[in-house]
Amino acid sequence: MAGSFEYGGYTFTPYRKFRKREGDFFSICQRIRSDRELGLCTYEGRKADYTYDSFYAASTDKSCDLFICAENGKVYVPCLNEMFEYMEPIQRSRPASQRKSALDALEQAKKEVAEAPPAADTPAKSDPEL
Q1: Which of 57, 74, 81, 118 has a 20 to 30 A CA-CA distance from 130?
Q2: What domain range is 44 assigned to?
């Protein structure tokens, strides 16, 4: 991964590209918000000049989608008119002690099938004729 760079009075580090599981453009747009404190935008009241092209010209990784700001620790996505703060999706995960491995789940399913009583009204199946 490329190193940090300065832009608009802040230090940014390339973080990563968007992942397929984060969804399409509309899903991603629901996780961005303006950060007036950062002030990198094209609007009145901005703290520094900003353009999408100049940001990527300064960037050390031209293919990266998300960047971490060293000064505030937030994740940003450069867009046409401003640097939006990106709210990462919450990763829901159970502790390893509560997770079953795929093999454990398979063994449990085999055990349950073997212990289940046979259905009384189901006729025995025979091999189909070829």
Answers
A1: 118
A2: 5-86
